[in-house]
Amino acid sequence: MKQQGPDNRPFLFSVYFKENKNMSKSYTIEEIKSIEIKWQNFWAEKKIFAADNNSTKKKYYVLEMYPYPSGKLHMGHVRNYTIGDVIARFRRMQGYNVLYPMGFDSFGLPAENAAIKNNSSPRDWTNKRMDDMVAQMKQMGLSYDWSRFLFSHDPDYYKWNQWIFIQMFKKGLVYKKKSLVNWDPVDQTVLANEQVIDGKGWRSGAEVEKKEIEQWFIKITAFVEDLLNDLDGLDDWPEQVKTMQRNWIGKSEGTIIRFDVVDENGNKIDELETFTTRADTVFGIEYVVLAAEHPKCKKWIHGKAFETEVADFIKSVEKQSLVERLGEGKDKNGKFLGVYAVNPVNGRKVPIWVADYVLMDYGTGAVMAVPAHDQRDFLFAKKYQLPVSVVIKSADKASLLADELKEAFVEEGVLVNSAQFDGTNSAKAIAAIAQWMEEKGFGCRTTTYRLKDWLISRQRYWGTPIPIYYDENNDPQPIAEDQLPVILPDDIEFGRGNPLETSESFKFYTDPNTGKKYRRETDTMDTFFDSSWYYMRYTDLNTKQIFDKDVCNYWMPVDQYIGGIEHAILHLLYSRFFTKFLKSIGMINYSEPFKRLLTQGMVLLDGEVMSKSKGNVVDPDEMIQKYGTDALRLFILFAAPPKDQLEWNDKAIEGSWRFLNRIWNFTEQYNPDFKEDVDLASLSAADKDMERERAATIKKVTEDLISYKFNTAISSLMILMNNVDKYLAGEQTPVKGSVINRLIRTVIQLLSPMTPHVCEELWQNIGSPQESIVHALWPEFDEAALKQDTVQIVVQVNGKLRGKFDVPAEISEDDLKEIVLADDSIQKFIQNKPIRKFIYIKGKLANVVV
């Protein structure tokens, strides 16, 4: 009997037993589509995947990172969501109460840009893309609890963004200060970094300026030690991610050094502080260097002949990205500011420069430069012909002269040219000199962090309005909580300035108690705010409160969180901060939001990341139309372990389709006349071997799904099917039909988390009692079935294969040796030579060394 597959490829049925008249005889692409639609509708109508907030079962919370509604799923999405779906389906069958929700991080700049470009509403643009993506997700058979669907631009959601902001405000964790922004002088608006292209505004083309404006900040640094220390308890997070977070937090223990700033004649005109972790090198300071953003740069050059030259340099540096400023091997550039710093440890006057390789967000934005012992300082000093003074030498060298240096000496050594500290080990000198400076009053030991407070102000429309108004004294006050949400208005104009300032209905707030009118805050929140707590809202979409505490504490923390490594820092850090804040005000009882983290690899084509610009995108819809959803899912899971990059392969997805067709054909051998209960003791050797293979596959697939080795789980099923073919072609036994039925049921169950549509259909076809395979418990195995009565031992003589012996599984080495050496076929290779060794690897191999 022939069957037609995609592109009319034929497949042959092999019918070994009585045909089941109730089962279909085809697995064509047309039937695939019919089956998928049938079961997707069934899942939706029956609400099969709805989680129960009142269940007594053990909970399991699976979640992928909050996606932006870009409008169309790409293969990266497909991989991410397929992984999550397999985990959710597997845990349901293990008896867990599973929460697996979905929603959209739907505020953001792309929608606003599209609205400006197309003269449309960001809301309409976003809603259309959400609808498209939801349809694709349902087509993928993803087992989300759609009753918990949420999205950031829903007022019922962002109301609670505003509520959290107000709680932070009350606790003194929210404040306003001036901060530099990218300013488009033509459009009169603030630009995000991604809207600045080659130093120009993306829309107007105007040269972008740096401008200081008042902006809102959240004091994330109040929780910095908890954020750092609690990383140690995240045992199921990738070490790479934890390292990235530690580096971002950037804890440094060092010394603040106070310098007098003097003019050319030595007259004191100001003071300056620098931070260093290398107090052992302070006697070698040859210049001090400031970040371009440091406010004292412009102050000190004011009125000087070179003011314009230096100011232009500062502007050019401010336009550069971090990569441009800090790139490996990049030339370091700077300008002398015309003033000097007096080194407090030796009274030397050294020049103060501004340079592109110093950042304002590290330490104080001012760095003491020691060219002999820091490579960046060394290169800068050589370029601008600044002096180099050696203050550390190797312990095994009599001296080290500056002229000898081809690069900075950065190894541990002993101090020289360092007054009373000469001869001190450099590592020990760090603490000794820091203490000495502290005692002298021109330094103090301190701890600094790279982590800065979180700037959340956005001068854009499509985001959560900040719930603040300004009183008669222009002091910020929170909107009353019973007045939330502060709704985004529709009467806005795009094009110039902050869109919310164009709304007459929005920009003034009327106090409901006094009737007084006040100016309203027109900034919106950074969209990272939206995605920093959404996983808690999924637990309980109660519109009267942010969530039910008991329900949230039942579900949280998320047992498995899944997303790309690109979110390893900001999103995860902000989510951890929100969790710690909400715990501090008594809302929750846990300290970390995500128990286990999986960062999946990217999908590549010919070794490159798929992207529209490169023209190498594989459309998931096309693959589904050609092969079906289950074949695509199977390929995604089989092609590579989740953490690795996945190389797209057209032939491999065809192989996945072939394997599913093979499973379909095999299940046609199910015969309801045969009972599935079997007595192991009554089985033939062949039956026992097949039962052992079935039990071993259950064990292996279960272990692989728990450890997310989906590719090897599928491989185990393929190996099982190869052994099934051999078994089917073997001798007939009285219980062979029962063994086959058990195999069919097991294969369907083990494969169902990965290929749910076809497995639901096959589960129904074999007459299973449950209405959905989702309600069937995960198969168990009999440990006794794993035990072998006999094993085949390969026997070698001097490493060469000379025979195979079927022996009892628990045979001792001495008994095996006796059997092997008594065998004539082995003796002819020994030829009466003395036996030097008999090596036995239990259950597998014996080697006779003569």
In percent, how much strand structure appears in the residues?
15-25%
For the secondary structure, the number of strands is: 36
Mean pLDDT: 91
Identify the overall geometry: globular
The percent range for helix content is: 25-40%
Task: Give the low-pLDDT segments.
Answer: 1-25
Distance between the termini: 57 Å
Structural class: alpha+beta
Tally of DSSP helical segments? 25
Assembly type: single chain
Radius of gyration, taken over Cα atoms and rounded to an integer in Å: 35 Å
Report the sheet with the most strands, covering strand number, pairing sense and barrel closure. Answer: 7 strands, mixed
Structure characterization notes:
The protein has 850 residues and is of the alpha+beta class. It has 25 helices and 36 strands. A hairpin with a 6-residue loop joins strand 25 (508-510) and strand 26 (517-520). The longest helix is centred in the C-terminal third of the chain and has 22 residues, at 685-706. It is globular and about 105 Å long.
What is this structure, in a nutshell?
The chain has 850 residues and is of the alpha+beta class. The chain has 25 helices and 36 strands.
